[in-house]
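Chapter summary example.
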Amino acid sequence: MDDPRLTPARPEVAAAYLEGKVTAARFVEGTMAVVGDAIAPLRAAPRPDAMLQTQALMGERVTIYDRTAEGWAWGQLESDGYVGWIPEGALGMAKATPNRTSTHKVSALRTFGFPGPSIKLPPAATLPLGALVSVTRSEDTFAVTDTNLFIPAQHLAPRGQMEHDFVAVAERFVGTPYLWGGKSSLGIDCSGLVQVALTASGIGAPRDSDMQEASLGAALPAPDTGPLKRGDLVFWKGHVAIVRDATTLVHANAHHMATAIEPIRDAIARIAASGSEVTSIRRL
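The structure predicted for these 284 residues follows.
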């Protein structure tokens, strides 16, 4: 059976390309939209109290297959294929310009978008690492976007510029509160940390830890085959951590309720005590 997290199909409606493969009352082509909010929730149901599955960041493209009268849109993210419900208002003005091209991305852990060329103005937006924007001009020390946000130029990088060390990106999130489904320095989960850090380094990664374990890198034969290396990924059932060096790792976790650096042996022992053993270690 196709993974429902990645398959745009419900009994009521499904993507047209799935016709003949799934059962649905109707099949639609879908329309492309662009996330206009800085951070938009992708939920399991069209309700504000439904489980947060993941988040979409400004500039991400999403194919919309269904809408509700209550203002929810159901679709699939282009970046990692995740399917869910997003507030239609989060698509904002950008949904009218699905063909816009993002030129830059936020390279700071987070930054502000101001309504004018002054840091004394109340910020109009708080943008997370990885948010995509279209810069149309420069003014003083600001890059000005097509939506008239004035962003400190030193907090942006050309979209094609990549980080050289994804572990260093993850380390910048230390202290960030743990948030199931989160993907920003305002709140992040274990697999979100891996995905955001790898994306910043130009490495595509699926969203959830089980998907990452199945597809990223190559599995090491056994934990005791030699010292772990920076960038190795340690997996448990429902959890993933990033190795910093031979003795420590960094991970977003509910024990610390934050992204934390922890000795590898301590983390393995602590998680084993709760009933979960390491399932694999993968090297990119």
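To summarize the output: The two ends are 28 Å apart (CA to CA).
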